[in-house]
Amino acid sequence: MGSLTDGYIGSNGRLLNAYRKRPQDFKRRILFYLPNNDSLFLRSQEQIWLDMIRQEELDHRYYNLKKAALGVAKGTVLTEDHKEKLRILNTGANNAMWGRTQSMETKLKISESQKLAYTEERLEKMRKPKTEAHKEKLRKPKSDEHREKLRQANLGHRLTEATKEKLRGRKHTEEEKARMRIERECPHCGRLGRGSAMFRYHFDNCRQLISS
């Protein structure tokens, strides 16, 4: 879970971005300490503190957008009942963004904060060429279990007639097909891949190149 001296601030992205910009405005105070790794009991205690926040204070006085202890410790296996409760907490009017639209000003602030997250040190690390072991791992075929999970995730997904017609109308030439079969490596992030997606998201359009 952590320790009293690990310097943990929080996992909320907006909180961490604000802390990076002005750490002098924040103070770390431990409200509760659990000496063991009982994650479910910890979440119940976290919920008690969250319930003390008034609804109108969310996203104003506090960085929290909702009064729900949704965090899950690494290694925790959720029961079906717990998963259903989490689903309900994020559905419809319970969702913090229900009926809301972010203004252009807010979108620009989010964009700027994301740029700050990509420091030169981090970008340099991302530009570092992948090792042969890493490249081999990327080339590794998906297991049957992985393929089944992907199949299950796409069950029930239906394309519109307009999308089907669009897909039928576009035919690749033999030259294009041969070009897409070639495995390529993006010089900016080291990603290996084939097909049109590599040209769409990498090379001149690579996020690391744009961020720099």
**Count of discrete alpha- or pi-helical segments spanning 4 or more residues:** 11
Strand content: under 5%
**Distance between the terminal alpha carbons, to the nearest Å?**
35 Å
What shape does the CA trace take?
A: extended
Q: Can you give the helix content as a percent range?
A: 40-55%
Order of helices and strands: HHHHHHHHHEEHH
Task: Indicate the topology.
Elements: H1 13-21, H2 39-50, H3 80-89, H4 104-117, H5 120-127, H6 132-139, H7 144-153, H8 161-169, H9 174-181, E1 184-185, E2 192-193, H10 196-201, H11 207-211
Antiparallel strand pairs: 1-2
Could you explain the architecture of this structure?
With 212 residues, this protein is mostly helical. Among the domains are: 13-94, no CATH class; 118-140 and 171-212, no CATH class. Helices cover 47% and strands 2% of the residues. It has eleven helices and two strands; from the N terminus they run αααααααααββαα. It has helices spanning 13-21, 39-50, 80-89, 104-117, 120-127, 132-139, 144-153, 161-169, 174-181, 196-201, 207-211; strands at residues 184-185, 192-193. The chain has a two-stranded antiparallel sheet with strand order 1-2. The chain is extended, with a radius of gyration of 23 Å.
Observed structural traits:
212 residues; mainly alpha; two-stranded antiparallel ribbon; 11 helices
